[in-house]
Amino acid sequence: GPSQSAKPSFEPSVEDALTLEDLEGIFGDKVYEANSSYAMAMNWILNEDSRQLKRTSPNFVQRFVLALLYHSTGGDGWKRTRFLTVDHECEWYGISCYRNDSVQSISMSQNTMIGSIPSELSMLPLLQKIDVSRNEIRGTMPTTIGGLTSLNDLRFDFNLFSGPLPSEIGRLVHLTTLSLSNNSFTGAIPRHFGGLTNLEKLYLTGNKLNSSLSTEFYDMASLSEFHCGGHQVSTEDRRVFLSNRLLGTISTLIGRLTKLEEFDIAENDFTGLIPSEMGKLTNLVRLY
After folding, report:
1. What is the pTM of this model?
2. What is the DSSP letter of 20?
3. Mapping DSSP to helix (H, G, I), strand (E, B) and coil, where does residue 61 land?
4. What is the mean pLDDT of the chain?
5. Residue 264 to residue 216: CA distance in whole angstroms
6. What values do phi and psi take at 107, rounded to 5?
7. Residue 222: which of 239, 197, 244, 251 has the closest Cα?
8. How far apart are the C-alpha atoms of 157 and 34, rounded to whole Å?
9. Is pLDDT at 239 greater than 70 in this prediction?
């Protein structure tokens, strides 16, 4: 009989279809961990996402990474739910993109996020801003964040982060705002932060930092606001005293920070005199 003509199909041909192996090649064997956020993101992009991306789709990595962010931070309980929709991921809540559809910023303040931040966020290489402030995100800050060298604005304040401040942050040379206050970060302000020569605002109030300020601290030549006081926070059921305990002396090198306007080190354990070099700081309006 007459050969049947092939039915027109909107399904990607089999050899083009995105597969589990493609995802494993990029994200490793985590994608096989049952019930993990990786497995859930993988199941979504392969089986539930009606876009059915191909392995040649230029955006499949970023779409997967954002699905992973959703599943790692309790996306089902987010306050704003326009996410993992049929739309291009640049249309999702909190996501802004460049003209070429690469993710430029993630802005999700006060979005009832829980869980932790996946280290794979570093696979969005052109990110300029991450704001996940005022949520309940736990865990450590991924060291991979040091690879996001386009970042200029990073806001993790008012969460439940713990552990050390990653020294890798010092690689983010374009950073102008770093807001990490009201978490439970411990240890030192890494001397690598001295590399943040464009940093204007550094907010570390209300953590559990304890160290002296390294000489490199005074290399942050653009610094205008440094807040690192202890802080008392009232929750509904109790008052918690989160305390930084910076110690040692304020170096005479502080005279280098000529752009300084606010220098808040209240409730710490500094000793010694305030150096006369502070007198050089003609822009200083608040010292406490």
Report:
1. 0.90
2. H
3. helix
4. 92
5. 18
6. -125, 105
7. 197
8. 32
9. no
